[in-house]
Amino acid sequence: MSKQSQLREYQTNILARLENAKKAGAETSAGYLGVVIGSKNVLVNLQEISETLPVTEIQPVPIVKPWFLGVSNVRGVLYAINDIAQLLEATFTSISSNARLLLISEAVSSNVAFVVEKMIGLRNINEMKPHEVELEESACLKAQTYQDDENRIWHMLDCDKLVRSKEFATPYII
User: Fold this and answer.
1) pTM (predicted TM-score)
2) CB 101 within 8 A of CB 115
3) What span, in angstroms and rounded, lies between the C-alpha atoms of 57 and 99?
4) What domains can you pick out in the chain, each with its CATH number?
5) What is the pLDDT at residue 26?
6) pLDDT the model gives residue 27
7) Across-strand partners of 101?
8) Mean pLDDT value of segment 115-129
């Protein structure tokens, strides 16, 4: 089996598991999608995202901050596409075949999506231990971090806090 078809099968499996976890009403304390944003491993609550997609064509918008990439047509609906890595650490997310768009759930905000460098897979924080060093909260990351069995540090994304932050709500350059 070629590497390309193995990758496609792996991604299809993750997406199917993600959909099954959401349908089963995954506990908010356990149901997370692991992604890479900038230099960080980040946990995204499954209840805060509605879908994951390959990155589609993004139409740039003039006079906006660099982290606001533009808009993209997702099945006839325009979504505002954001690069959280630029917002957090001023690093661009490389748009490759591994990059994904995560659509924020309608329960949090309408027509907002963000780019991640890659998806790692479903994670359960009940199988992780709290990391002893808490970080200063940012525009979208919680202070609490977790450590998995492989000693990787995981940050927690708070989509609700992100869309309500003053910086995120004003992407235009003044």
Assistant:
1) 0.80
2) yes
3) 13
4) 3-169 (2.40.50.180)
5) 47
6) 45
7) 53, 115
8) 94
